[in-house]
Amino acid sequence: MAGGMKITSVLFDTSAKLMLFMALLSCLPQPSHQGTGNKHLITDLQDGEMYVMTGSNRFCYKNPMMPTWRQTWTRIQVKVWSSNVFKVEIAEGEEELQELEGFSFWGWFQSLLREQHNETTINVSLFSKRTCFKINPADQTRYTVKLVRKFDIYLFLVFLAGALLFIFADSLSRSQVFFYSAGMSTGMIASLIILFFILARFLPKKSPFYVLIVGGWSLSVYAIQLVCRNLSIILQEHWHVALGYVVVVGFVSFAVCYRYGPLVDEKNINILSWTLQLFGLLFIYLGIQIQQVAFAIIVAALFSKNLEYPVYMAVTAWRKARQYIYWKPKPYRLLTEEEYQKQGEEETRHALEELRKFCNSPEFSPWKAVSRLQSPKRVPSLDAK
């Protein structure tokens, strides 16, 4: 117990000294290149132009077009490639680009973490007024810089996937196929995070172990990003390792999903459905370059999803009310000659039958009826008929 406390105190003392050292380095004065007028030459990039350079150079790009809804899936990219490795430092403007020449502890720390590439792509925001970057090659090898503005099919596919996920979230949350496939995919993508989460439940709840857990999660996220950036190289050169990983981790993930089974409780299904809808809205936002368009589509999707039944009831009520508002009398249909003769015979027969019944009833007085008739001789003939 005493040994554990001693190790803990040593770790805290070391971390405190390290933080103090970092604070002192960050407070060191930075040499400024702006006051001396010793500014480096900056190359302004143009759409579609290709630049072949050597040595350390600085580039800036100013978007000449105002973004509109037509650039919803348009992406601006700066592609840099060379036969040798190089480093890229990105700044928001010319002043920040000039400040990269000065020393700062944070910049030095970022340079240590920054990877070297022989090919990279820099994404430029449509709303950025001016984007600048600096290229530091390892030697005097030539490298090529090209700015491209194009329709990005991947952005459209991300938007389409988000829209479909949002629309079919209810049915997917009840599908067993989606449950197993999503579980296996999550296990293969985040296996390291799941492993550290399981280990964290068995580790003692002491401060050094919390540091280990946080470091493990950070390492897992960094490993996932590293694999995503180098996925093509891994599939080409180490495909057998990737295949073995997919088979083993996929089988373990399937076994875990099979052990717990699909969701049955209605509350859990609703939670999964809401989660899928949130991911769908997130994909819609990430798949659209214009934020105003993205927010408009998200608001419309939420209204259409939650106001489905009220809108249906309003449409039904409007259809019924429209019958009374725009009511018009139906035009009468004229009878044909055959229908007129047939209707006349039926009405005449019915009237004679009613008259015959009245004449045979006790209420009928023959003398009063005969006295009122102009032609009494026709009454016996009517009775005979």
TrEMBL record:
<keyword id="KW-1133">Transmembrane helix</keyword>
<dbReference type="InterPro" id="IPR019358">
    <property type="entry name" value="NEMP_fam"/>
</dbReference>
<keyword id="KW-0472">Membrane</keyword>
<dbReference type="Pfam" id="PF10225">
    <property type="entry name" value="NEMP"/>
</dbReference>
<protein>
    <submittedName>
        <fullName>Nuclear envelope integral membrane protein 1 isoform X2</fullName>
    </submittedName>
</protein>
<dbReference type="GO" id="GO:0005637">
    <property type="term" value="C:nuclear inner membrane"/>
</dbReference>
<feature type="transmembrane region" description="Helical">
    <location>
        <begin position="153"/>
        <end position="170"/>
    </location>
</feature>
<keyword id="KW-0732">Signal</keyword>
<keyword id="KW-0812">Transmembrane</keyword>
<feature type="transmembrane region" description="Helical">
    <location>
        <begin position="177"/>
        <end position="203"/>
    </location>
</feature>
<feature type="transmembrane region" description="Helical">
    <location>
        <begin position="209"/>
        <end position="228"/>
    </location>
</feature>
<comment type="similarity">
    <text>Belongs to the NEMP family.</text>
</comment>
<feature type="signal peptide">
    <location>
        <begin position="1"/>
        <end position="34"/>
    </location>
</feature>
<feature type="transmembrane region" description="Helical">
    <location>
        <begin position="240"/>
        <end position="261"/>
    </location>
</feature>
<keyword id="KW-0539">Nucleus</keyword>
